């Protein structure tokens, strides 16, 4: 089952979720952990969680072409890189957040097709706002850019801290997971990849 986004009027859009179902489930979880879902502080929690999920998982109702709407022809065929795009996603194993930054770069094709810089950050959100694993999110961002812009190459590097590894489980605060996806020229040319990596790391 999939749900559409309600409209484009909010910055991220909200998914149309099955609100009563989430409310029932959250109420059940509260009971299962021994809480009283009818105490004052928890009364509105099920509906709050439903609203939060509609925002947190909005990417499930979006596709790359919903956000990569502006494609210009420009006289530029050199690398474009947006660094340090803040990422908030949800680990699909534990449904707790992972967060950090994404760096997204591409080399336009011979026609000089480029997109708006903000669209790269919006594309990150399309895939971050889903139940995710970091590796898949990284590849999806790269593949979507390849498909829509048909550039000479794409590089995506994501650095995140997973709360499932810090607040629970193995409890290793500060541990960062770094994933990358390289396509086209970034994969075939060591020099191009090294140039991008030096821009990404040069902070
Ligand atoms: N590869 C990958 N693993 C992830 C990601 N997010 C969470 N995980 C891991 O998913 C694994 C799930 O392991 P399980 O043994 O099934 O679950 P668990 O018993 O809760 O594991 P622990 O976290 O070690 O307590 C854990 O090792 C997590 O660290 C991710 O984005 N990518
Ligand atoms: Zn997890």
TrEMBL record:
<feature type="binding site">
    <location>
        <position position="91"/>
    </location>
    <ligand>
        <name>Zn(2+)</name>
    </ligand>
</feature>
<dbReference type="InterPro" id="IPR043133">
    <property type="entry name" value="GTP-CH-I_C/QueF"/>
</dbReference>
<dbReference type="GO" id="GO:0046654">
    <property type="term" value="P:tetrahydrofolate biosynthetic process"/>
</dbReference>
<keyword id="KW-0378">Hydrolase</keyword>
<feature type="binding site">
    <location>
        <position position="94"/>
    </location>
    <ligand>
        <name>Zn(2+)</name>
    </ligand>
</feature>
<keyword id="KW-0547">Nucleotide-binding</keyword>
<keyword id="KW-0479">Metal-binding</keyword>
<dbReference type="GO" id="GO:0003934">
    <property type="term" value="F:GTP cyclohydrolase I activity"/>
</dbReference>
<dbReference type="GO" id="GO:0006729">
    <property type="term" value="P:tetrahydrobiopterin biosynthetic process"/>
</dbReference>
<dbReference type="InterPro" id="IPR001474">
    <property type="entry name" value="GTP_CycHdrlase_I"/>
</dbReference>
<dbReference type="InterPro" id="IPR043134">
    <property type="entry name" value="GTP-CH-I_N"/>
</dbReference>
<dbReference type="GO" id="GO:0005737">
    <property type="term" value="C:cytoplasm"/>
</dbReference>
<dbReference type="InterPro" id="IPR020602">
    <property type="entry name" value="GTP_CycHdrlase_I_dom"/>
</dbReference>
<feature type="binding site">
    <location>
        <position position="164"/>
    </location>
    <ligand>
        <name>Zn(2+)</name>
    </ligand>
</feature>
<keyword id="KW-0862">Zinc</keyword>
<comment type="subunit">
    <text>Homopolymer.</text>
</comment>
<comment type="pathway">
    <text>Cofactor biosynthesis; 7,8-dihydroneopterin triphosphate biosynthesis; 7,8-dihydroneopterin triphosphate from GTP: step 1/1.</text>
</comment>
<dbReference type="GO" id="GO:0008270">
    <property type="term" value="F:zinc ion binding"/>
</dbReference>
<dbReference type="GO" id="GO:0005525">
    <property type="term" value="F:GTP binding"/>
</dbReference>
<keyword id="KW-0342">GTP-binding</keyword>
<protein>
    <recommendedName>
        <fullName>GTP cyclohydrolase 1</fullName>
        <ecNumber>3.5.4.16</ecNumber>
    </recommendedName>
</protein>
<dbReference type="InterPro" id="IPR018234">
    <property type="entry name" value="GTP_CycHdrlase_I_CS"/>
</dbReference>
<comment type="similarity">
    <text>Belongs to the GTP cyclohydrolase I family.</text>
</comment>
<dbReference type="Pfam" id="PF01227">
    <property type="entry name" value="GTP_cyclohydroI"/>
</dbReference>
<keyword id="KW-0554">One-carbon metabolism</keyword>
<dbReference type="GO" id="GO:0006730">
    <property type="term" value="P:one-carbon metabolic process"/>
</dbReference>
<feature type="domain" description="GTP cyclohydrolase I">
    <location>
        <begin position="22"/>
        <end position="200"/>
    </location>
</feature>
